[in-house]
Amino acid sequence: xxxxxxxxxxxxxxxxxxxxxxxxxxxxxxxxxxxxxxxxxxxxxxxxxxxxxxxxxxxxxxxxxxxxxxxxxxxxxxxxxxxxxxxxxxxxxxxxxxxxxxxxxxxxxxxxxxxxxxxxxxxxxxxxxxxxxxxxxxxxxxxxxxxxxxxxxxxxxxxxxxxxxxxxxxxxxxxxxxxxxxxxxxxxxxxxxxxxxxxxxxxxxxxxxxxxxxxxxxxxxxxxxxxxxxxxxxxxxxxxxxxxxxxxxxxxxxxxxxxxxxxxxxxxxxxxxxxxxxxxxxxxxxxxxxxxxxxxxxxxxxxxxxxxxxxxxxxxxxxxxxxxxxxxxxxxxxxxxxxxxxxxxxxxxxxxxxxxxxxxxxxxxxxxxxxxxxxxxxxxxxxxxxxxxxxxxxxxxxxxxxxxxxxxxxxxxxxxxxxx
Length: 420
Description:
The chain is mainly alpha-helical. Helix content is 72%, strand content 1%. It is built from 20 helices and 2 strands. The chain has a two-stranded parallel ribbon with strand order 1-2. Helix 11 (233-246) runs parallel beside helix 14 (294-307) and helix 19 packs antiparallel against helix 20. The model is unreliable at 95-102 (pLDDT under 50).
């Protein structure tokens, strides 16, 4: 393999393994900033060694072991400074280098959940919690997080730096809160998991339309959270939503990796085991009092698609009503944009276009590629092909995802060919 190919492979491995390594190191050194630095040192070691020695059989284990050795060295150097470090360092000193083993999967899973609660601590602002957790657990770059939040990249970078400093200065515990302390912390944790899943479901940048591993990690963490908070309806709502959305992965791209939109997907490829799990989660929500929260409502919307035998049989009137309910409990321009799509499917493109035209004045949607994309689709259905073509080209210029850009440019070309 060429050096460039090795580096690409290392980058892919790092995206998968980094959150587990940082979580485990945080438990060792009790400082998330230091843990990330140590993990980066292990990555640098891999970049130096693997092009020469080859990629190891267990690359994740290699990275974890290298990071743990660096953490051990740090604890040995600093053990006099802190009694906890001293005790842990003495324990580590009794082991030989060959005793440093990769942690068990369950151990890592617990550490990942602890890391989420740590980075979502109330000592941080809501914006900082999400940015830091997506960076450390989702492996997202500052640019990807900025795109997901529709804010400038330097703003996200500053939030992450300040958040790590705050956690270090306040000595936030690396633990899962218990009892009455759990519920106040859930909302920010759920938001982080939700954004992590969304980034995997429709990647904001890069050459891939979807990043299934990121979605799988978000879903796994959500399922674990549902086990420790079984009476929280919104936890089950988010899990249900992710189960339904995950069921479509095999149909979301074609053999060439090109996007396939929902209405064009082959529903025989959907994973009906995940769909059944989604409906089971909705049943739990009903037993807990009904679908009143934003995640539960979104799950109900997704269930309408999952339960429809075909695209033509989708209950768009119910979906429109659910988006109306979602707008009441969680108002946002993006919810309104989705409501416009649902109304256009239920009652005609003219209705949707009226709402979308109003949304063009929303500052929060400036630079949001899906706004001109939706408007282009509605104009296309109305036969206003020149305007639709311009909207699709604008949308293509606003997305950083290469697959999505190609799809939008194809839609623009379709307008030109239909016109001629």
